[in-house]
Amino acid sequence: MKYIADTTIAKWDKEITNDQTKIGEIKLKEQREGYTKTRAIKNKILVTLVKNDAQLLIGADAGSNYSIPGFALLEEMKHHSNAGLTNYQVLCAATTNAATYMNQSEIWGTVEINKRANLILLNANPLTDLNNLNTVEAVFLNSEYKTVKELEAELK
Prior knowledge:
Layout: H1 6-51, H2 71-83, H3 87-94, H4 96-101, E1 119-122, E2 136-141, E3 144-147, H5 148-155
Antiparallel strand pairs: 1-2, 2-3
């Protein structure tokens, strides 16, 4: 949340508090239980799709309420992992599958000579734990190397 304006956070807090007050604790509990049941059904569908060789994509619905681009993408990846996909399948959905879907696999999606060099350099392997996607050391953006400190300086 450190990249979200304080005014936006305050607005979200107010909206959430108002919504919770309007519907009451009992209804809120029912909604949470409904979400849990719906998530379980979605997880079964997701696993069935993968078992049948569907090429999944990762998408975070950026622009929707309370969705923070980048961070929402990581949450979507965790949902896929929690559904039962391997970390490799999740990472493919965010990289190679996306490039293939957009008919751009010759340009990006894998690390190869003459492909666009937009990638993140991590301090730990995301194949062993997707939380390692949070161990960013640096990025290559348009083939330019930038450290985390440089990127954070640009965000200020």
